[in-house]
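Pipeline run #58 for the internal structure catalog. This entry was flagged by the ingest filter as a single-chain record with no existing model, so it goes straight to prediction. Upstream metadata was stripped on purpose; only the residue string is passed forward. Reviewer on rotation: M.T. Logging verbosity set to normal.
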Amino acid sequence: MSVCGAARCRLIQTRGAVRRALQQNRTACGHTNGAAESIREKLQAFPGGSIDLQKQQESGVAVLTVNNPARMNAFSGGMMLELEQRVHELETWTEGKAVIVQGAAGTFCSGSDLNAVRAIANPHDGMKMCEFMQNTLTRLLRLPLISMALVEGRALGGGAELTTACDFRLMASDGVIQFVHKHMGLVPGWGGAARLVRIVGSQNALKLLSGAKKVDPDFGKQMGLVDEVLQCSSGAGETLAHAEQWLSPLIKGPAPVIQAIKKVVVSGRELPLEHALQTERHVFGTVWGGPANLQALALKPKHK
């Protein structure tokens, strides 16, 4: 067979493989969507609390607040659904640069509301809830915005998992992160274990999960789970301002450039090298010759 013939044959085979993969993906998505609708109906039966979102158009910083202080900001079923909606809003926020995730009333989040957990305790529904939250938190981590978990008070169980779905974690001086799943006879189910391994390494992750260790600010910073310790206590009313100040140098510049930077970092972290390079080229093309690029070139002196 000639070289051209062999190349043509490989191209046909590749196209066929792509078509089959797309068909399988559509079939899988159809099953997933049906399962997602089923678990949504069950989660709706457990209202309470809210997920509040405030977008600061001028700074490009959004604040996402887990708001259920009567239950230490535990996620009710309704709050799980609302989190998905808020993440969707952030995915389409073209003027955004960053999002800060915090808890209301000086504490971060204590995981799932036990009333909802007990009601969907059978393995099938538990796995569907787990899949739903994994998808939502993965979308949060992949947002084209720089994300930060602002930990005041306690981040327990699913709340600890929520911190790992952010790019950075800042803690108040008295904050605590604790993966308490072992005490409930469980392992993390919202993707927290997989993300934790990527953040602190497998040995440290094993210590935190098997020992259900309390991570205070100093210990967290030592192992790389915590990026900065704020010199203020939980509920003092100063933490958000300090967090925004810490974030400020990272988001200086136009929103399209900040979002482009986040996209190439996500692709580099999650994709094989060849695909990550392809994504980087594509994202580069979206900012090359753009307003920010042209303005920067105009301000730079020409080489002699």
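catalog note: Residues 3-44 form the longest helix (42 residues).
catalog note: The chain has twelve helices and nine strands.
status: ready for reviewer M.T.
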